[in-house]
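== Sequence and structure of one protein ==
=== Format: two labelled lines per protein ===
==== Data for this protein ====
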Amino acid sequence: MIRTLAAALVLTTTQALADAPLVVTDIAPVHSLVAQIMEGVSTPDLIVPPGADAHHLALRPSDARKLSQAQIVIWVGPALTPWLSDPLETLAPAAATLTLMDMPGWAHRDLIGGHDHGADAGDTDHAIDPHAWLDPEIAMIWVRAIRNTLVTTDPENANTYTANAGNALADLMSLHDRISADLADVPSGTWIAPHAAFGYFTDRYGVPAAEAISDSDAETPGPAHLAELRALVEAGTVTCVMSETNGPTDYADLLTDGTDARTGIIDDTGMALDPGPALYGDLLTGIAAQLKACIVP
């Protein structure tokens, strides 16, 4: 009898997982939001592994298989991962595709210097900053869009998706309130970012960077720009220079050498975090803590 019940439970669980749609996401923060909404139904797949460069990545055969089998693809969009556009068209033409940058209800930022993460110069959205997940209020809009896509594609699990999305929205509001309080007294314009990726976060919380070392994480800053940044540090205008997780600290060390300015590490995708539902909140909490510790000793 016990074995029969156990077998039935396994069969029921396996059947539920088999019936759940195969959902593929691009980067860890988006994967985290989707995982929160799908909790109790299934787990989404992740294309860009932690620590990889989302802007320039060769699609692995295992990821190509995931895309070819996907029923739903949720991604930021071509402004972040231009290399993913063609595989989506050829490998997942029938999948329901949710492009988060296309969701209405929020304002796009322009990137400093108009860097486009690989889009053609003639592309109309070449200057759009795609790092919008760093603003929890935008993430709330995305959560609603993710919920709607899941409910439409998989109505049998609509109640679970709706309830989970409600919890995710409440958690995002709580996260936003905590970060707002933590950064309330942090001065603006007193730090240098490793590259121009943190504008949505710093605009939301009133702590914009004075400058960025480069427009993108793949770009090498020139001597003239480095000299300008060094002048800001020497003048005392900038008191903190950030490097990125898993990136070199050479520029931060060069800019702060012999001064009282501090250095720190910051991350925009959760490279050092484990993928999953908790990653999104941990990522933004970490950014706030890293900024505050570096700017306000």
Notes: Strands lie at 23-25, 45-46, 72-75, 96-99, 109-110, 128-129, 191-195, 211-214, 240-244, 262-266.
